[in-house]
Every structure is written in C-alpha cells, then in structure tokens.
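Technical appendix A lists one of the benchmark inputs used to test multi-chain prediction within the project. The record comprises two sequence entries:
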Amino acid sequence: MDKILRIDMGAAEGPKAIEAPIGDYAGLGGRGLTSAIVSKEVPPSCHPLSGSNKLVIAPGLLSGTIAAMSGRLSVGCKSPLTGGIKEANAGGEPAAMLARLGYAAIVLEGKPKGDDLYKILINKDGVTCSIDNSLKMLGNYATVERMKKEYGDNIACLSIGPAGEMKLAAASVACTDTELRPTRHAGRGGVGAVMGAKGVKAIVLDDRGVSARPPKDPAKFGEANRAFVEGLRKNAVTGQALPAYGTNVLANILNEAGGYPTYNFSQGTFKGVSRISGETEAALETERGGLASHACNRGCVIRCSGIYNDKDGHYLSKQPEYETVWAHGADCGIDDLDKIAMMDFLDDDIGLDTIEMGVTIGVAMDAGLLRFGDADAAIDLIKDVRRGTPLGRIIGSGAAVTGKVFGVERVPVVKGQGMPAYDPRAVQGIGVTYATSPMGADHTAGYAVTANILKVGGFVDPLKGEGQIELSRNLQVATAAIDSTGMCLFIAFAILDQPETFQALLDMLNAFYGAGMTAEDVTALGKRILTMERDFNIRAGFSKEQDRLPMFFKTQPVPPHNVTFGVSDEELDRVFNW
Amino acid sequence: MEDAEAIVAGDGRWAELSLVVERDLLARFYRIFQGGFLIKARVGTGVGRFLRERLGLPPQYVAERISTIFLDGKPVDDLDAATVTEGSTLALSSAMPGLVGATMRRQGFYASLRNTITHKQEEWHGEEKEGLLQVKVFNLLMADLGPLFLERGIYVPSGELELFFAAEPDRFFDGIKGAALDGRSVQPSSLRRAGTIGGCGWTHLRACASP
C-alpha cells in the first residue's frame, strides 16, 4: 500500500491513470489519508461538482491484511451536501482488495468534458478506463450484475446508481459485500454525486494473483490478531448481541429512553417500535430463511449484518440497519418491516443515503406532502428520485433543501446533513458531536468508546462527572484515529470493557508496520485528522455558527421526558480546544 | 392500568390461560416480552432488591448480565436508589452496542451524555405491598428471563394476546402440548380464533416447557 493511483478524468485524451508513490502521505490510511489529501489538494472554495474537487477512496492502515475487522473503506471529498470536508465509510469487500492490490488510495481528479460514463478496472496488471454508456441510469444491482458477467465473480465493485449520475446531494457510493451485492454504502454527504460528476459509474477491483499484505513481524502480528479476535468473541456486545440482532437491537433501547426520534423529531417514543425492533427483525429473518447473522466482508467476526427475505422467502434486501429502520420507520411513522426493507433495497439500488432519505421523507411528511405512516407513498417518493422528476430531485437533494422548498421549520440537519437516530435532547452528549463534528450531523463521528484506562482520546475523570464536552472531544479524537485503520468501529465496544483488546489492536499495528505506537500516538493521530478537517472547513467559509443544532432543539421539548438541548454555545466552542 | 386493583385484590376479572409448550417455542413470545407485560409482585423496594429477592435472580446475573435498566423510561445507575412502585415500568436489557448503548449502560462511563434523562436518586417513604408493575425484557435477556416470567405468570391485554396467537404459524400450535383456559382443557388451535380468550380485558398467562 505504498502507492496512490491518480486518475485524471478530465485529461485531454481521455482518463489518464498514474501511479505515484505515497510520498508525504506515508503513515496515513482510511480517513486520515482522505482528509489529508482533500485538505491539502482541494481548493476549499471550489464547487463540489467541479473538476477541482477530488474523490479519494482509501482503505485503512490494516486493510488487506489478515487482521480481523479490517475491511472498512473511506471515501472523501468536499461534500455537495454540507459544503465542507467529508469522509464517508463503508464495509464490504473493496477495502481489502484495493489494499492487496497495493494502493493506499485512488484519487479521481478533474472532470470529463462530455457526458460519457466510464467504468474502471483495476487488477494486478494495471488500470483500464473505458467508456460504457450502456450502464447509464442502471441501478446498482444491475450494474454489478453486468460487471460480474464481464469480469467474473472474483471481483469487488464500487458503483453509483441513478442518484449519483444525477449528481444528487444524497447520492452514495455502493460497495459490494461477500455475496457481490451492492449493499454496503459510503452513504453520507453526497460522495456519490462527486463520483457522478467525475463520470465514473463503476470501479471494478480484481485481486486475483495478489496475496494478503505481509506484516513486518508475522509471529507477533498473528498473536495479536488472535488476542484481538478472542476479545471480540468473549464480549457480550460484539460476541452475542450484535451477531444475534444486528445494530437494530438499539431500537427498543432508544425508544425506552425516550430518545427514538419519531414523526420528524417531534417525539421520542414510537408506539410501533416492537414491530420494527431488532428482536422482531431477527426472528422474521430466521423464519423466512434469511440470515440474522452475516458478515459484510470476509474478515469480520462480529457478523452484525443479515439477509432479509420477503414473506415468500425470496431475497428482498440486506438486513436493514438500525439507522435505516429508524429513518424509514419511526421517523416517518411507519411500522412495517417489509415496507422498510423495500425502501432499503430502493435506496441501495438507486444509490442513496438511507439516513438522509428517511429524514428527508420525514420532513416531507411534516410539510404535508404525504401522511406520516404512509409507507406506500414513501416508497413512491423514493421511486420519484429514480425517475428524476422535479419532486424526486428535490427529495434526492436531502432534508435541508426539501425543508426549504416546502417551508418546514423543523428540519433536523447540521451543516446541511440529516440527523441520525438519536434525539440530542434526550442524549445531550450526542448533540455535542452532531453540532461540532466537521462532518455535519454524524452519529459515527464520535463513536469509538475506547477505554479511558488507556486514555485514548484524552482522560475524563469519571468521579468528577465531567460531561458532554470533554467526552465528545475524546470520542471524536478516538474515532478519527480508528477510522484511519480500516477497522470497523464496532470493535470499540469490546475495547471499552477490555483494555487488553485495545492493546491487541495496537500490537497488530505495531507488528505490521514495525512501529512502536502507543495510546498517545493514537490520540495525536486523531487530533491531527480533526485539525486538518476543521481547517478545511474554516477555509471553506465555515465559522462557529455552523457548530450548532437547529434552534428547535432548544425551544421544543421532546416528550416523554420533555427536555430540550441545554448545552450552551460557549460550551460547544470548547470542544476542539487544543 | 385497567382493572389493576381487581387483579391485585384477586378479584377474578381476568382470563386464566395455562400452556405447556415445547421448550424452543417459549422464544416465540418475544413480541410480548419486548412490548411489555404486567406482573404482580411485592413493590416499594429498590430495583436491585426487587430483581434479586422478588424475582429471585442471582446477584451475579443482575450485576453482570442486566447491564441496562430503565425505570419509567429513565436509565438507572444506582439500583438501590431507584424504587419500584405500583405502576412502574421496568425495562431490562443486556449490554448494548453503539455509543448510545454504552451511554445507557448502568454506571457506564458515558452516563453523563444522558444526564438529563438519568433516573435521579429519590427518597421513598411508602411501604412495601403487593402491586402491579409493567416489565419489558429486551434482546439477549429474552431467552434468559422470558421463560422465567412465563412460568411465574404474566398479565397481558387479552386483545394483544389474541393478535399474537392469530399471527403464529401452525407449528407453534403443534408444539403446544397442553392448554387450559379458565381451568378447562382447550384445543391449542382454538386459541387462534378471535373471541376464544373471552371478554376479559386481561389474561393471566402461564407457560412452561414440556419435559
């Protein structure tokens, strides 16, 4: 992983691919690399759909090795949705393949002159960019089927659907999973629109003939990996709850806490929650011959994903995740898992961020465009996006645009990005992260609940009852660092309880690179990444006024606890005080 | 809660349904476990004591397995400072993923992130007495505690129970080895028919595993 593949899509003679040494970016991977390249090379004031923006696709520092859980891919750019820096993250197979092919990153640059659509093949023999306009406006599923027919089954794909081709701000980049289905998405922030602006429909990776990346110290690496896996397996969260129920196991918990945003964030509990909970979803999947436990990439031992079949036992979608079930479910007043799964499939096929879509439809319901709870109308609205109707284009541009067009006050976005499935009035600390993350409202930006014992991300004295600001800071720092490793963030739950499991992760990194990284180094890496991202945003015109929640969170109490967001602006401004 | 006093007083305004089912079918009641049911117990005591002494759960199980507890929708950190009273809703969960899962955890490191909804210490001056409370059991605990509660007996709205039976497949009823309604033996498949359980608002359901 010592080279960067730069593809100039606007070169005069057609796309031009150049391999360059990683150079000054050495030591960075995943989000660290995407943010470093974007912050250094993308003019912050450029239009996100212009040739000056760059789409950076980077596996993590441990991707492509035999390390468990190392299959995450980062996709970075200037976001068409937020106007700031963006890193979207996805599982699936591409990260491992790209890393095994030796690439630290693919950088798509420039912009083609015409409206030809390209597919790019990358294998051990090199890179081939070719025009394939027969792929125009195909859904992701059909696109991947075509790539399989053309290149065989031993591939992984990144692709955009019609939403990306239309350059809609909620467009995602799809990554294929272990069944070669386009179900894992770099969803947030419109990264798919940037890929569409570059004229790239699909990137096909074929790693036949290459091996896993070899560590500097194989014995130590293997030992650390074994300890790491053992830690994940013995932990109740990673070893039992997530494999059994997936992320949607959180639905009942958030609902019980009164923090499950319902009817466009107007209340915190949903009557229909038991019909769409993770427990119900897992039981239904098992009954119908799907899978309640499934790995999205081959190195995963947590297996929180699943397969959702329809009532006749036919594949409908991958197991809708917590965020998707919430966004298309409670936020829209819908309690029908089959309809939610259909919407998930449509989002995946059209290439849309499921969080943004659900929040947008919730805003549309608040506007009176359709009734809360009307699943069929919601499905039609998503299909309108595919059809490219004026209404579909508004919806596909996200919640902020939709709210503005239809005159809605309660629009739950930060920096233009739709808010995920935790009401910040009930869980105020999440609100701090939503407000201050350079990414916009992002639940995974401050997610890595690392062991305070090792002081990763800083130290908070649990006896002092220090709160939101310090914890959010530490979480964001730790998360930025882990996002650079290619590791799935869910490893953090085992790390929270088991310091030895975090040590195993450090040992793997050190054994692989022959380094001597400590927890302090991890903290320093996280701070470096956040500093770059915030600097980019400032140069893009952001100020502290963008580090705020919409005012309605301060003025509209959320039942049943009837609380408002009480963290002051001055406190929010202290989060990044290093 | 409708007819709550009658239930507590032992005034028979509910249906009594007893089932003997194949062990693996007890898990089918998951919708009822997570949606909530009533139990009659001695209330007016701290949550910890309630779980250990009133429900008979081993202290180690309470300490290590029931990682997340809500009382009336508020996450509980101090099991002795939160009191289960008449009409309480007690929700029980194992350790949960996500930052928010970690945040809701009992005495969790990230508890301050939810300080506006945390159950606050209270002084309880009432007395212990027989009462009704609602219990919800989520995720991994459903397999552990669900059968326990079913064997003990739970009160469920009769309408909800009818809907539950109506949605169950044939093999569920094939797995019921014995069924008695208000003391009379009934065909398990009859439970699918609307109106079988009768006109009472509540049903006291007991189910145990067949040997």
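The mean pLDDT of chain A is 94. Chain A has three domains: 3-205, 247-418, 428-572. Comparable benchmark entries are summarised in Table A2.
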